[in-house]
What we know:
This protein is an alpha+beta fold. Helix content is 15%, strand content 35%. The protein has one domain.
Amino acid sequence: xxxxxxxxxxxxxxxxxxxxxxxxxxxxxxxxxxxxxxxxxxxxxxxxxxxxxxxxxxxxxxxxxxxxxxxxxxxxxxxxxxxxxxxxxxxxxxxxxxxxxxxxxxxxxxxxxxxxxxxxxxxxxxxxxxxxxxxxxxxxxxxxxxxxxxxxxxxxxxxxxxxxxxxxxxxxxxxxxxxxxxxxxxxxxxxxxxxxxxxxxxxxxxxxxxxxxxxxxxxxxxxxxxxxxxxxxxxxxxxxxxxxxxxxxxxxxxxxxxxxxxxxxxxxxxxxxxxxxxxxxxxxxxxx
Length: 288
């Protein structure tokens, strides 16, 4: 197995560095340009456009009225976006190999070296230096649907997207449908799309793509902020640029797992404890 340390790509770069005798770190590196969109700005981002008249056209979702950024608001957004994304996505996963593959330089038997998954984000000013361009708008309305497309290297966010917000969604729990309140930060969900992840249950934007069960809908690529091992797929797929299998060498796969503790942040308004259910009483709860 040949190990290539550096890869440069159109949508991101990556770097492999040794941590110890049995561990390597795989770092995804992205350069982001934040484009400040004012009411007088003219732009077209994957069909969502403004002609400089303050109206954001986002078919088929409607029209939105843009408001000017205050300098302090823009400074705060630029200051906070990278730390918020990093706190969630950096060093969240570990990849375990299916077999020993790494041959130490000092000889001896091959070892089943694992990979940790890290992230590096850098803000750049010039579009030509950016892997991804994030257009940031400030609409009066709260119903604008932010989006990101990593392959197209474009995204559009609002000034509200760095905050965590709750959404009440009827969700299947066993055989019943409960009123579940999910907590999610839009920028964290959309950054998953930047990395190439789809919604938890499909590639579309319909309600079913966000999941139908509680387990699906609590996912970061559903309605919630819970990460499963499947969210490490961008790091798993990036390994193809770094691990070059020799002719006739056995296949090598990696199993991802989440290594950071995660809180339960949803609330089931219809959950009833078994004892209380027998007496016709119950209260909402985070974990049915």
